[in-house]
Amino acid sequence: xxxxxxxxxxxxxxxxxxxxxxxSPIRVLSSNGVRAVLxxxxxxxxxxxxxxxxxxFATSAxxxxxxxxxxxxxxxxxASDVIDNLIKEHKLAPDTRMDIGRSGVGVGIxxxxxxxxxxxxxxxKESLLNSKGVTYAGEGAxxxxxxxxxxxxxxxxxxxxxxxxxxxxxxxxxxxxAGQSDIVMTLISEIMPVKGVELVGPLxxxxxxxxxxxxxxxxxxxxxxxxxxxIKFLAxxxxxxxxxxxxxxxxQ
Length: 252
Fold this sequence. Notes:
Blueprint: H1 2-23, E1 26-31, H2 35-49, E2 53-58, H3 60-68, E3 75-79, H4 80-88, E4 98-110, H5 121-130, E5 134-137, H6 143-153, H7 156-160, E6 163-166, H8 169-177, E7 183-187, H9 188-191, E8 197-202, E9 210-217, H10 224-234, H11 237-245, E10 249-250
Parallel strand pairs: 1-2, 1-3, 5-6, 5-7
Antiparallel strand pairs: 3-9, 4-7, 4-8, 4-9, 4-10
Helix pairs in contact: 2-10, 2-11
């Protein structure tokens, strides 16, 4: 009888452990570039996966540092070049990589303010030089495109004194609201969802660059099946409209 009770107790513990594993959150490390749309999609993602999600947002560069430091996670969504580097370093499972969509770089202002002319290289050059201040994230995925444009316009030295580099796009938006800058430049997907901030438009086509967002599963994930279900949902047609509404062109 004692042995029977012991076996029953052991079986109960195993069931509890399995239940806990099946209900534990899927940990996601995500770029700020898809933050707005992912927040909207979390309830749908959880229904599709059958598990809760625990999502943390930061720049792609900051997330890579966390992964390099061996922070545990199941799925990450980052700029595609960062994903590819992590795959080369054997930190992500290569067979799970999928592209989600892409976003161009744009210009934002406080809603209701006079819109600067950014339609051509000459007009955006004049608008930047005439601005009170310009802000963008120093580690943002959009910075290379912005730097190339400023260099190409030949105004890097003249613009330096009025440029405020921040740690994140959130800080850039704070600088815009505080009146420290009147122009913010970042991914369109990071401008469109922000209350009180208006998208003026994309950079001129000569300087436009797109950041593709991709996703993959951690090589050390213990939740591979659920993580795979999450990726399938995010890269599928059900999520496409939500991505498009937030300034991200779905992957074709």
